[in-house]
Amino acid sequence: MAKEYDVVIIGGGTGGYVAAIRSAQLGLKTAIVEKGKLGGTCLHKGCIPSKALLRSAEVFSTTKNHAADFGVNTSEVTLDFSRVQARKESIVNQLFQGVQGLMKKGKIDVYEGTGRMLGPSIFSPSPGGTVSVEMNNGEENEMLIPKNVVIATGSRPRSLPGLSIDGSLVMTSDEALAMTELPKSILIVGGGVIGIEWASMLNDFGVEVTVIEYADRIIPTEDKDISKEMQKLLGKKGITFATNAKVLPDTLDTADNVVTISAEVNGETQSFTAEKMLVSVGRQANTEGIGIENTDIVIENGFIQVSDTFQTKESHIYAIGDVIGGLQLAHVASHEGITAIEHIAGEDIIPMDYNLVSRCIYASPESSSVGITEQQAKEKGFDVKVGKFSFKAIGKALVYGESDGFVKIVADKATNDILGVHMIGPHVTDMISEAGLAMVLDATPWEMAHTIHPHPTLSEIMGEAALAVDGKAIHM
Fold it and tell me: HEC profile for 132-159?
């Protein structure tokens, strides 16, 4: 028998389950259809497991290479990668149980299966149509009749022509997370956020890492000063970089369980060899098999097109998260989901301003940013002023043992508005929210500078960088 709902959400990742919780809070009868595990990519194949591995890598590297700097004498430091993976799985499972508990608390119905939109039918003559769920347990399909549908099916790693993913020698981040043993060497194709996080992690674990990046610099979407500093500091740790490097199709060779690939680097062909290869060249939306062909939904460049309220061409069908492109970040998907649900419920909403979204890279060193880069500001015609302050002049950074990096604030000379904040160094992913809040509140560098930051803390650098915008930094 068909079941009626106010909202059916297809996809139970971060965007989907957060949308479901908000929907339940607003008194809407809600269901989630998820073919895998609640929590989706972020919880099971992305944010959480990768950060758990990064933390283990950081502890191992610090203990092995820097314990003596703190006066701590250690005997031989070894790595038990099976325990590293076990810790990762424990964290993931704990959070997974938490999400399941939230669904029960909100009285949200969860269907474990594949959801497919069928459009109006004898079950549902209304425009809301029907969602058929092919249950994972093989039981008869469930028929759901929603007034509204939210598509939150996420994305998956993509590859390049000629780079066949076998999951063992040639991997995406999905397969890399499940490795039971670390290779001695690895090639990472793609020097974006995910590629750089993996490069940093594996290097800290003792793997020989080479990064091959098509653009003229790594993390090319970030400020040039951040890219330059990141490459310099990772290079000091022993990571090799090839930029301006175009991987040549059909040159992949995996004979004798060794990976070899050729790339055109600055116009010259070079060969690269390692035990394994990680392909990290972006993600593609999961739009197949969910019944889009039964709707009037528009897809462009592989992504579902939506309005600023996240409605598709069919007003009762919404889409959020990676499946609509843009900033493919878990916190973005969550806020998109909340906005979509509040629009469904008739709430007054504030359209999302993606310029105010903080972006983080959890490498060692960390990097984070909000707003536009100095280069983008100039291209937009702003007359900019820039403040920059080094962690080397911050007492807590010296105490902490990590004084590389800086904070850079870009402001408009005419209005004194903050246009962007860019950071690289210790714990900057935990400090970027101050900059994000400043931009939400239209704060000026003067206002940031007159926020009294406690001493000694890493956050003092925020006030100093703000003072530096007008040439008034105290400690440099």
Answer: EEEECCCCCCEEEEEEEEEECCCEEECC
**pLDDT per position in the chain (476 positions), as tens?**
689 999 999 999 999 999 999 999 999 999 999 999 999 999 999 999 999 999 999 999 999 999 999 999 998 999 999 999 999 999 999 999 999 999 999 999 999 999 999 976 544 555 668 999 999 998 889 999 999 999 999 999 999 988 999 999 999 999 999 999 999 999 999 999 999 999 999 999 999 999 999 999 999 999 999 999 999 999 999 999 999 999 998 899 999 999 999 999 999 999 999 999 999 999 999 999 999 999 999 999 999 999 999 999 999 999 999 999 999 999 999 999 999 999 999 999 999 999 999 999 999 999 999 999 999 999 999 999 999 999 999 999 999 999 999 999 999 999 999 999 999 999 999 999 999 999 999 999 999 999 999 999 999 999 999 999 999 999 98
Backbone torsion region of residue 195, taken as left when φ is above 0, otherwise alpha when ψ lies between -120 and 50, otherwise beta: alpha
Q: What is the pTM of this model?
A: 0.95
Identified catalytic residue from 44, 427, 455, 475:
455
Among 19, 41, 42, 47, which Cα is nearest to 429's? 47
Q: Is 455 a catalytic residue?
A: yes
